[in-house]
């Protein structure tokens, strides 16, 4: 950890921040404005349609070569009809689905499994809306989606993982792949746990079982799912397989909102109860805490045995907008301008946001003590950074950097054991190079 440094002329970095077993370092890169369209929502896939999922391996390889020149690689959907027999279905009863781009060369025997994000649903109205969208029905999913960032096939943008087998499991249950139940009155299938199990077993059957390296990842609700399922994922493989997990923007905190309430805790409590999540939460957590608490990563991460990397913005915009300052907590609208323009935040609002950042840093204190775990917590106002080329890769010209090391390099160094990565940025605004992306 000798790489870390502190900018002496920054008033926030000058004081010692000893909340974690790492040296605090300063963000010297910048946050990319192109991420603004996705910062406040769990939306990482385009609405472009395309050809069906019956493409051959040869066609996919040609598509991959063209993508290096023509733009993002578009990967066709595969609908897993066989999973229906196990009751593994989306909210509306349709089969689950995934997108797979096969590996090549040195990556033939390595796999990334990416769990799609996209929020949750906690009541009949929200779940009914979800059921009639791509978040609840495979019939309504895009036939092709772009693979970028950590899912990219570009050796320039994604040097460590570009040649791996890369698969994204679509999210259509509403409880971070952890629910188990059926609402007969409303026709809601809460089968996230079954979707997880059936899809992973299918991938094992088509080659993943012989992998020598695997990485489970996900963004937002998918990042939470990667945390909840990390040790389960490890259990599918022999000890000789290198298995690690990456959670991007999945560190949702049980924090008080601006009115003193617990908006996110109330929301999570409804999700856990409605979708029957409790039996599928990590037993090391439920043995000591209530089930709602065990849907919060801060109460789970210290009990995970599999190596895991937490990638998070300290000022996560989804949590700011929906958990810390939701409209219901501030009916006067006093936070509306601050939520959409960080430069418009007054001193008290900025102090509140910095306190949230400090809570996040404190929540990883124990986690950071493990040599096998990794951290990259930057001071950008962002949400999800691993699948966007402009925030993932320095080659794209915009990856946030801590001590001159961007996200892609940090994750690669951690996964391959080239260096320990325990990087936490200074408080905003640091040295002023971290621009607002909203």
TrEMBL record:
It is an enzyme of class 3 (hydrolase). Its EC number is 3.1.1.-. GO terms for biological process: cell wall organization. It is found in: Secreted, Cell wall. Keywords: Cell wall, Cell wall biogenesis/degradation, Hydrolase, Secreted, Signal. Residues 1-33 form the signal peptide. GO terms for molecular function: pectin acetylesterase activity. InterPro entries: AB_hydrolase_fold, PAE/NOTUM. Pfam families: PAE (PF03283). Hydrolyzes acetyl esters in homogalacturonan regions of pectin. In type I primary cell wall, galacturonic acid residues of pectin can be acetylated at the O-2 and O-3 positions. Decreasing the degree of acetylation of pectin gels in vitro alters their physical properties. This is Pectin acetylesterase.
